[in-house]
Specification:
It is a single chain. By secondary structure, the chain is an all-alpha fold. Among the domains are: 64 residues, no CATH class; 69 residues, no CATH class. Helices cover 51% and strands 0% of the residues. It is rod-shaped, with a radius of gyration of 30 Å.
Length: 267
Amino acid sequence: MDKSKLIEMIKINPFAIANINNPTDDMKLLAVNNNGLALKYIANPTREMQESAIENNARAIEFIDNPTDDMMTKAINYGWTNLEYIKNPTDKLIKSAINQAGWAVKYVNNPSEELQLLAVRKNYDSLKFINEPFEVVQEEAVKISYDALRYINSPGLNAELIAVKNNERAVNLIDDLDTNKILEFLKVNILVIKYVMKEISIDELEQVLKEKLSKEDVEEKYVRNYLNCSTIDKNSDIMPMDKILFIYKYGSKKAKKIAVDEKLKMI
């Protein structure tokens, strides 16, 4: 087949270069200019061919044995997923990819604490790609969303407490619940009671509330959530309690002041 027909064939299908014996440099360059991934079928490509391939399709970096820093930077700038095709990327390249999407951490072997934090701050669910995340990374992720717990195989207690404090529904994502843990969770978020009321006794609940409400530094949100929690009520069959009277008996001055304010709202 003459050269002109081969060139026309490459224009129609750049991958045809794979079936051409001893293609010319012009043919090779034409192929990668039309589809960068055709670089896969070109032996001993020139730098010009490699650069043209990346300009056309950054994923062509996969087929370059020793890419220059500029090539690797271009590939990452075109898309974070290209990190998968770069062998031994520098921290700078990795950070550039993660700054686009935290999920890029999936292409990093044994990411450092710094890289893990960068990833979860960008996308909290990038935790799914991190084996045994550092505790500080777990905590950072659950601060963003309690849902991050579902991506941690063995979350630390601090991460669980932060998640539960931010949203009581987090308790549904914790597998190894026992009475002690439940009581600790109730100390940071009384609304957890909605999900565990059958797991503890009224006496255990009262002990938690006495300890929490008697403190002068009790959080206002905690007191208001307690007073407005429909699960705990003097007419409840499971958790009967006169909440205003309970605060009157055991609450600190701060708790009583908040209770009075809440009661006035009801009038």
